[in-house]
């Protein structure tokens, strides 16, 4: 359920607002730490991304976004999994709101799977007010 924490970061909604359980928060934190280590990004880079700072276009940051979204099940090989996103976010944010953001963001494609994940993260973040 780490994806929920990452997604909450994408949507700039706190974990409390998404009503995540302590277990979900712990899983999200562990996945974030694993992906940060795997991709070699700093804590500051991860925090900047979580806070909506998209100035750092380091490929490692983009691959961190991909790793995290794949661990949540939102992405598989650079392809968004709309049913998974809706199933996991719908109960937390409302299905209609999630579908509205999906309509704006899910066709987003980048140069590769890491860039696609980064662009999706950015789109969901910018449209977070709708969720």
Q: How would you sum up this structure, described in words?
A:
It is a single chain. The protein has 131 residues and is mainly alpha-helical. It has one domain (22-130): Orthogonal Bundle (Recoverin, domain 1), CATH 1.10.238. 66% of the residues lie in helices and 3% in strands. It is built from seven helices and two strands. The chain has a two-stranded antiparallel sheet with strand order 1-2. Strand 1 and strand 2 (79-80) form a beta hairpin. Helix 1 crosses helix 4 and helix 2 (22-39) runs antiparallel to helix 4. It is globular, with a radius of gyration of 13 Å. It comes from Drosophila mauritiana. Residues 1-16 form the signal peptide. Keywords: Disulfide bond, Secreted, Signal. This is General odorant-binding protein 56d. It is found in: Secreted.
What's the helix and strand layout?
Layout: H1 2-10, H2 22-39, H3 43-50, H4 59-72, E1 75-76, E2 79-80, H5 82-93, H6 95-105, H7 113-126
Antiparallel strand pairs: 1-2
Give structural attributes.
131 residues; mainly alpha; Recoverin, domain 1; two-stranded antiparallel sheet; 7 helices; 2 strands; disordered N terminus
């Amino acid at each position: 359920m780490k994806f929920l924490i990452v997604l909450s970061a994408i949507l700039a909604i706190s974990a409390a607002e998404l009503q995540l359980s302590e277990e979900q928060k712990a899983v999200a934190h562990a996945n974030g730490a694993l992906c940060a280590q795997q991709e070699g990004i700093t804590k500051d880079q991860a925090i900047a991304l979580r806070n909506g700072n998209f100035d750092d276009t380091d490929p490692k940051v983009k691959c961190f976004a991909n790793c995290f979204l794949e661990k949540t099940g939102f992405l598989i090989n650079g392809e968004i999994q709309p049913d998974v996103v809706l199933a996991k976010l719908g109960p937390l944010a409302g299905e209609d709101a999630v579908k509205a953001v999906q309509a704006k963001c899910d066709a987003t494609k980048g140069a590769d799977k890491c860039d696609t994940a980064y662009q999706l993260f950015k789109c969901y973040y910018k449209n977070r007010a709708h969720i």
